[in-house]
Every structure is written in C-alpha cells, then in structure tokens.
Amino acid sequence: MTNGQSPFSIPVPRAASAAQNQRIQSLIQQALTFQTRGQLHEAEQILRQVLALDATEPDALQLLGLIAKRHGDLDQAEQLLRRSLAVNSRQPHVNYNLGNLLKDTGRPSQALPFYEKAILHKSDYVEAYSNRAECLVALAGQEPANARPLLEAALPLYRRALQLQPDYVAARVGIAEAYLQLDEPERAEEALRAGLTRLPNDFYLNNSLGTALRRQQRFEDAAPYLRRAAERAPDRWQIWLNLGNTLLALGQLDEAITCLKKVVVLDPGNYAAQAALNQALWETGQHAQLLNSYEWAKERKPNDPDLLEMAAEAYILFGRHDEAGANIAAAAALRPESPSLPRLRATLLLAQERVPEALEVALDGLKTAPDDPRLLYRTAEAALRLNRPADALDAARRLGTLVPDSQFAVAFEATAYRLMGQQDPRGLYDYDRFIHAVDLGAPAGYADLGAFHADLMAALDLQHVARHEPIEQTLRNGTQTRENLFTRAGAAPAILALRENVLAAARRYIAGLPEDGTHPFLRRKGQELHWAGSWSARLRSQGYHTNHIHPEGWISGCYYVDMPDAVADAEGKQGWITFGAFAQGNGATLPWERAIQPRPGLLVLFPSYMWHGTIPFHGGQTRTTVAFDIGGRG
After folding, report:
1. Which domain range does residue 385 map to?
2. What is the H or E stretch that residue 478 is in?
3. 513 to each of 168, 409, 506, 510, 607, how far by Cα in Å?
4. Rounded distance between C-alpha atoms, residue 186 and residue 194, angstroms
5. Which positions make up the signal peptide (predicted)?
6. 462 and 495 part of one domain
7. What is the pLDDT of residues 49-90, one digit of tens each?
C-alpha cells in the first residue's frame, strides 16, 4: 500500500438495508468456505464486499480480524474484534477469539474478562474455561506473591472443562501444570495418568507426564513416556528436547546427543538444545563436531540476530574468539541497538585479556541500560582486574541493590576492599566465623567410614560417565555428575545417607551463627532450606578447581570421599581447598588467605559468596568429592 494504510483498513460505516441482508449472509457463507480452505485472500475480498454494504456487520468484522491475525497484523486484528463486540457484545466466539489474541500476545490479565464473557454467553464453552485457567496460571508465574490463590482459582475452571469434555487434553495438562506449581507433583501425576487411561497414545499427555516426572528428577520413570511421545509426534522439537535432557541426566550421552540434534534440525535457533548439544559433545570427546550445529543453523537462518548472538556466546565459551567476534559483528549489522551486544562484547574482550576495552564497553552499555545486572557484573569484574577497586565497589553495590541475594555482588565488594588495603567493614570474609570444618562419622547402618565410602564411591562411579569436565564449570581435568545428586528420585542409599548427615551438620552450623539482620549472609538465617544444587566432582592428576563462587547458593560445602596421597603434602598443599584468592586472567591478583587439608569424611561449610578453589595435585590417583549449595527461602 502506498498510502501507509493497513490492507485490513475498513471503510466508513454505512447501514445495510433490509434487502441486502440475504446478500450479506450469502457472502459471509462464501467467505467462511474460502477461509476454511485456507484461501484467505479470496475470503478477505468477499468480506470487504460485505463491509462495503454494512460496515458494522459483526460477523464480517470478526472474520476479517481472524484473517488479519493469520497474516500477523495483530493490532488490526484486535481492532476488528473489538469493533465486532462493540456492535454485539454477546458473541461468545468473538469474546473467546479476542481473549486468545490478548493471551497469545502476553496480556493474560486483559484476556480474562473476555473469556468470562464468552462463558457467560455460552455456559458449555470448554475452550474458554481452559484458556481462562491458562491465563490465571500465567499470571501466577508473573506474580509470585499471589501465585497460590491464582493457581487455586484456575483448578476449578480446568475441572469444569473436563466435566464438559473428559478427553480435552489441554485442560488435563493445565491441571497438571497448576499442581506442579503448587508443589503437589503427586496430584499432577494423577491427573495425567487419568488422561492416559483414556488416551494412552496421546503424545501431548505422554510428553507432559514425562516432563512432570523429569521435573521431580524421576528420570528413569520419565524416559518411556517421552520416547512414546517422540514416536507419536516426531516433528515436535519440545519432545526431543525433553527426552534429550532426560537422557543426559541418565548418563546416556550418545543417545541424548542424537535427540538434541533432532531439536536443532526442527528448531535451529533453539538456545537450550544448542547449548546442551555442544556441551555434551565436549564431555564425550567428540570435539571435531563442536559448534558445527551453529554453522548449520546459520545457513538455514542467515539473517537471524538472535542466532548470531547465541553463536557468539558459545564461541566465547569454547575459546574460539575470532569466530565469536565475527558473529557479534554480523549480529550488530542486523540489529545495532540490541541490548545484548555490550555484554557480549565485554565478555569477549575479557576472554581476550583486553580488560581496559572490556571495562569501557561495559560502562558505555550501562549508560543506556543502567540496571542491567550482567553489565554491572562485567563492570565489577573488569574493574577488579584493572585494580580499580573503587569502580568495582560502586558496580558491586548497584548489583546488590538490583539483585538482593547476588553472591557475586558480595564477593566483588569484599574483593574491592582487599585491593584497597582496607578492612571489610561488614566482615564478609570472616574466615574464623564463617568457615566450618567438621568430620562426619559413618551413617547409621555402616560399621565404619571405610564401608560407607566404599558404597558411596560405587554409587558415584555410576554417574561419572563423561570423559571431560563440563566446559561451563570451574573444574579442570576431571569429571562432574549431572543434575541434583541429593534430590533425584531413586538415589542410592549411600547418597541419601550422606544427604541426611550433611543436612544435620548444616543445621548445627546455622544454629551457631550469630543474628544480624543487616549482614548479607547472616540475615538469611531462619529461612526455609532447600538443595539449590548438589553434585560430585572427580579430579585426575593435575586437576583442580579455578577460583570461583557459587551464585545459586547461600551456604556451600564440600564433603571429601576419596583423596589421593598427595594431599599429605603440607608444604605444597596439593589438592587442598583455598579461600580468598582472586586471580582471573592477567589482571590484579590476590593470594589465598585460608587453606584446609582435605581428608575422607571431612565436611567444609562456607558462605557461597567466598572465593574458593583447589591447588592442583600430581599422581596417578583421583580426588572425589560431593559438593552442594544450600539455598534459603524467606
């Protein structure tokens, strides 16, 4: 159109005469026939004829609105549907369609009244009940403080839809999702299994049950349902992603890689699949295939800035800096104002040891996005490495204000004070008060620690299936288990016994901490505890952990299971855990301030924001630990 008007613009209203009604109805039926066949252009032309006769004809307005939606003209579609309702507000299907448009464009609260009107004028409107409930579930995700009442309000709507239509799959899946968010996984499973009793081959129900089981870390139980779903709907990438992640958790890495490749074929720009695929290729030693999936995807989506930014992030992670830079440049040419570009550029420059440039880029990015936590993180990191602690302290404080429980904000603050040569006024790195080392005895049922560790090592051996360490983790020259070791269903008795011993020790540690509502560590005392993560790390000769913190935890810890003889080296402190060292690249460094010699049965607890790492050891033995993060929910 040369005049700037939408192709769906409507003529000025003109009332239709009684003699025209029959003609109008005949035209609408013709338009419906064409629309059903997918011949949208023909349907549109006929509807224009109707509106030329009567510009207030509600059926023509709403049908043209649906065609506009199909063409992606959502604003025009919304206007047309609203105009149809302005003529006749008692149209249940138009209220429903407008509700769908609002829901699908991320406006669930605005959609709710239209679903309510649809139900008011059509009391057996199954889809409207279900979609109204879906909006309430979406709002629960947006409003955590009101999540429970919103979810509880959704459940009777889903149940009403199932009363009207017992095989309405979307409602049954919705009930399950609501129960999962209410932390009632047993009821979610019950709802899905009831649906599978009626529709055993429905791919949606199989996928949903597999997903629900996977979210409970019941990976062995989940896999058969996800396999069945994939057989029934091999063109759905979501199912292959769920199955791939489940197989990764089960240690079936090669089959998982096959599933993740299928996701990439079906959805080349899928971030989760691309990341998981290349990390699995790395861990299994298939390094010749690394990052090929990004190049394949770019051939199919050559002008997709999201894909280019995603690829750049991956190339940085795997140390291929020139290619990362080329992807960033290509993304910037397509979308120069992307908010992700300053972060990506700063991250790449830091990886290249071009730290002054990285700081300049991060600071420049903060001018337009002053509340971007990732840019504040990069700013603080670069400032510390350049020995500019005042700038780092400012960024750390701003980060802590934006993200109150940010462990990085506290770590950067404490490090800045050390570089200034000043005592930390809040005592953040008070090692004597906050680091707690205690020997745990053998759990009940074991004759001694040796017998317990033999069982524990056998259980851990089954999960150390990779050949290489995770590329995104701090471990070097070793392997690490996947998923949450302490909470996965079917965990070995020895792992569960260790979990209970560690939890009891952590509670004693917490009880001994002083009360201080202003301290970033102590103020979380009294919160409900949960396992934010737990895993086993196994180092080989020359293995170590780089200096790092645990951003997802509140209290972190490490339990020592099997130690090499080299840890007896009191002078070189091979394999010892250290605290306080800050050394990233070629910038400013700080030495460690506290070191602890590991031994089998020793548990070390400390704040998650404390920099810690390990000193490499040498020899033909391995070093096996169980590490974890404990979180606190207020």
Report:
1. 353-425
2. strand 475-480
3. 53, 22, 11, 5, 12
4. 12
5. none
6. yes
7. 888 888 888 988 989 989 889 888 999 999 999 999 999 999
DSSP string, 157-196: HHHHHHHH-TT-HHHHHHHHHHHHHTT-HHHHHHHHHHHH
Q: What DSSP string runs through 581-630?
A: -EE-TTS-EE---EEE---TTEEEEEETTS-EEE----SS--EEEEEEEE
* pLDDT for the residue 375: 97
Same domain, 538 and 599: yes
Q: How many domains does the chain have?
A: 2
pLDDT score, position 4: 46
pLDDT of residue 32: 85
Co-location of 494 and 463 in the same domain: yes
* Residues with pLDDT less than 70, the chain: 1-19, 634
The structure tokens listed for 348 are: 């790449």
In this prediction, residue 50 carries a pLDDT of: 83
**Residue 497 shares a structural domain with residue 625:** yes
The token pair that represents 509 in the structure block: 């540690």
- Element (H or E) spanning 542, and its range? strand 528-545
For 331-354, the pLDDT digits (tens) are: 999 999 999 999 999 999 999 999
pLDDT given for residue 57 in this prediction:
87
In a domain, 19, yes or no: no
Same domain? For 628 and 567 the reply is yes
Give pLDDT, residue 413.
97
Asked whether residue 466 falls in the same domain as residue 568, the answer is yes
Question: Is residue 550 a contact partner of residue 556, using CB atoms and an 8 Å limit?
Answer: yes
Sign of CA dihedral 312, 316, 322, 325: positive
What's the pLDDT score for residue 400? 96
Q: Are 84 and 61 in contact (CB under 8 A)?
A: yes
- Residue 205 domain flag: no
463 and 543 inside one domain: yes
pTM: 0.86
Handedness of CA 110, 112, 115, 120 (dihedral sign): negative
From CA 98, how far away is CA 79, in angstroms rounded? Answer: 10
Q: How far is CA 123 from CA 108, 115, 261, in A?
A: 21, 11, 46
Last residue of a domain, one of 401, 425, 449: 425
Phi/psi of residue 8, nearest 5 degrees: -105, 15
371 domain residue, yes or no: yes
Residues 395 and 413 in one domain: yes
